[in-house]
Amino acid sequence: MSAAAMVANGSARKRIVVLISGSGTNMVNIAEHCRLVNPGQGIHADVVAVVANRADAKGLAKAAAMGIHTAALAHTDFTSREDYDAALVELVSSYQPDLIVLAGFMRVLTPVFVSAFADRIMNIHPSLLPKYKGMHTHQRALDAGDTEHGVSVHFVTEELDGGPVILQSKIPIFPEDTAEDLQERVHEQEYRIYPLVIRWFCADRLRLTEQGAELDGELLGEHGYAADD
Ligand code: GAR
Asked: pTM for the complete prediction?
């Protein structure tokens, strides 16, 4: 291991593979945090590859511009989800990841993928889970007349958007808000909380156990760390 791969406490930099489907703004934010030298803010890891399920995902060009290795594996080239996920396992494994970060990866993953990387896949979902699993979360929150909304970072298990929550951030909903307003407000929170959670994982403070997500040895509750309800 090179000296650059070590820090004062001697732990190696982790290897992160980010999976995306679209614009990849969370991916860019995470990769930038990996390049920060301030130990209070930076992530002790490298984004070693960005993989998309569509060749036209805008985030691929952004990753390439940052000098990050990119790959596209089109789900349309496969007849079943399991076949696609088996190919994705092979591709992602080739980068030897310590952590797989889903950042706007709009695919339901089968047990083929989840079991291959058990305990080291995380996702960001634009709702206060367990509310609004699945798609169109902002519109659903508006339609329900909710006065607050938000975003959750969680470990990925075989249940769709159902793995243990690690951290959530809430936003207010105002009467005149549109789904686009909520998306923008949620994105701002995503840029704060996803790097923080990834930093915890890469510092070996956070892990998935059989009981749930554990931070510094403490089991987190249904809404993750520091939930106020
Ligand atoms: C993010 O808002 C993320 O929460 C959402 O996709 C967006 C990706 O934005 N993910 C999901 O809806 C997953 N179910 P980005 O490509 O600009 O990072």
From this structure: 0.94
